[in-house]
Every structure is written in C-alpha cells, then in structure tokens.
Amino acid sequence: MPSSEIVRRIHGVALVLFGALIPVGEGAAFAALALVFACLLWRWRELELRALLVGPAGGVHLGLLVWLVSGLAAVLLGGQGWLKPSELGLWSPLLVIPVLILSARLVEARWLERAAAAFVLALAVAAAYGLVQFLLDARPGEELFRFSSTRTGQMAIPGGKGGTVAGGFFFHRLKMAHILVLGIGVLFVRQLWTPLTPRRRLLEGALLALTGAALVLTYTRGALLAAGFAAAACVPFASRRIRWLSVVALLVAGAAVMAVPSVRQRVVSAAGAEASGVRAFIWAQGMRIVADHPLGTGVGNYSPLVSRYYDLVDAHFDVRTYPHNIVLAALAEAGPVGAAGYLWAWAVALAAFVAALRRGGGGAAVAAAGLFGVAAFWAIGVTHDVLFHKPVSLAFSALVGWGLARLPPGPEPAVAAPAGRLEVALLTVAAALPAAWLSLAA
C-alpha cells in the first residue's frame, strides 16, 4: 500500500476515534484530535486553506477571530492584566471547527460518516452506563475514569432528595446532558430526513429512546427544554406528512417526560422564584463587570475577576465561574466588538444550515443536525455557560465543523421559497432568547 494511502487511512481512523472518544472524556478525545492534527501537518502540501476563508466557514472563522482579537486586546486595555492565562484553554475546542473542515477535503466522505456514527454509538453506550448509575444509585467504575481531585457533586439528583443521576463516563450530569442533546439531534433528524430501511429505522429509534431516557435522568432542565426547542426548530422544514408525525411524537415524548413527578418538578422549577433569583444574581455581577469594563476584561479574566464582586455582595456564594449566559460572557470578556463577532459566527452557521435545509436535497439531514445543534446551543446558552465544559465544547465544535464541511456547495435557488410563518416564528424566538433573558437581569 502506498505511503500516501496509509496516511489517508490513518487520518480517517483518527477522525473516527475522535468521534468515538468525545462521550468518554476530554483527555481521550484531545489525544485523538492531536492525531488528526498531526495528519494535517504531515499532509500540509495538500491543505486547501481557502476552505477556511470562503462561504459560511469563512464567516464563522471571521466572527471567532474578531472575538478572540478583541478579547486579547481587552487584556491590554482593561487594566487588569492577564489574571489567569490558562483560562484561554477553555476555548481550545473551537479549533476543532477548522480542523474538521480541512480534514473533510483530505479524506473520503465515508470517514466523516463513520466518525458521526462512532460518536452516536459511543454516546449510546455512555447513556446505557448512565441508566445503570441511576438504577443502581451507584457510580461503578468512577475511580477508573476520574481522579479523586476531579470528582464533583454533579452526580446527585438536584434537590437533596437522594439518588444518582445518569452521568455517563463524565460522572457529571451537565456535561452528559449537553452532549446527549447533540447526539439526540443527530438521531432525530435522521428519522425525518434520511431514507432508512425499516430495520435501520427501528434500531436508530431505539438508540434515540435510550439517549432520550438518559437525558431525562440527568435531571438537567435546561438541556431538556433545549432539546424540545431545537426539535421544534427543525420540524417546520420537514415534509408535510413527516411534520405532523413529528409533532405528535414530540407531544407524546413531552407528556412522557412530564409524567415522571420528580422530573416534572425539576422542569417546572426552571420558572420558579428560586432559580430566577439565582440567575438574576449571577447575571447582575456580569452586568456590573460590563459597566466597569466597557471594552471587556480580556479573554480568560472573567472567572478570577468576578470573585471580587461576589465578595462585596455575598462572600458565601460559591458559583463563581462564567455568568451563565453566552452573550453576557462574550460582552464581559471581549467588549461589544468581540461580542458582535462571537454572535456573528453562530448566526452565520445558523443561517447556513437553514439555507441548506430550505434547498433540500442530499444535504438536508446534515443541515438539520447542524440547525438542531446551534438552536440547542442558543437555548442552553441563555442560562448556562454551555461551552465552559471542554467535552461539551468539543462536541459542539465538532458538530458545527462536521456540518459546515458536509454541506453541499449548491447555489442558492434563483427564487427562494417563502418561509412559512412557523419557521419565521421559531427563528425569531431563537434570535430573541438571549436578549430576553438578559433583560430580566438588567
């Protein structure tokens, strides 16, 4: 076998390993990603760097570059210095987007399909493991996957009533839930847009039920609501017959979730006074930082700086990470210009997936998976630091990069079909969510 063919195969296998290891843990996933990057370096003469600069990918990279440059400039202009440079590592998973786009030009499409399948299958195994954790009220094997110093209290059912959530190999309900949402999105849109044999449809439906059950048993209300919102954002683009079947299926799934008293109580509590009060308190500190540092504090400076603000108002408050809102986090660290770039990047990705869905054709399932992921990202991001956890950031960045790389390059239609009123309503809600939540904190 020629050496070039060997390298291509290693490159493809590395992508599959990366997909399979994301649900296992960030260390293993980063190791596989390093192998992918090494393949890119080895094949540097073949790289099509222009792919990073044109089309939707170019818009996404431009927005992220503006955000990063503004955030680094704010380190110099904000007067605080760089309080914790290691925080910049939180954003390293975003490099997955260009890595996957470049890799897609160098490997056969089947390797990207296998990588996606490996991710879903590994996630299903993690979901089954999570169900075992919940049913046994135990954490079997935790010492194999986590050092004692990295174990958290995120395996207990919220509310202090006892019990263990489905935390998967992360042993962390938030990480598990947010990655489950992305896997559920891939399986959900395949049911709507991919022609499957009855046997394959039944098998993937079973995987969808398994991952959905695990998501419910993470007791992560934001992820549950985001999954429903993202599914609702995709359904209007399906054919009329499938659209109605999907609506019925979503209503049945929602009813099943709400039929579980402990889960229903958890979901309903999202609108309760206690949850709203905590969020408002966290956001208020972020707004004070924005007021004191209108040009931004600098990338990585929010977490160490916000502790000073909490010490002034409530020294015992212990949730001192990012501000539980992606818009507020970008504004606080990178200033208005950086925040605009950050929002632009995800708006471009969202618009690209919607445009591809409306064109239809062979790329509809890929575009729908991308739309599901970005819509869920926005829905979770208004109340959580959704990319604060590296495994989640890896999975989300991989989905965006995979989606952009696999979108068909076909031109826009000469006369676009008018958007349905439901489409417009859903996309309007998606765009308005961050602003609406921020207004509550003001």
Word description of this protein:
The chain is mainly alpha-helical and 442 residues long. It has 17 helices and no strands. Helix 2 packs across helix 4, helix 7 packs parallel to helix 9 and helix 9 (221-234) packs antiparallel against helix 15. It is globular, with a radius of gyration of 21 Å.
- Please mark out the parts with pLDDT under 50 across 5 or more consecutive residues, or reply none: 412-442
Radius of gyration, taken over Cα atoms and rounded to an integer in Å: 21 Å
Shape: globular
User: Major β-sheet, in short?
Assistant: none
Protein traits:
single chain; 442 residues; mainly alpha; globular; disordered C terminus
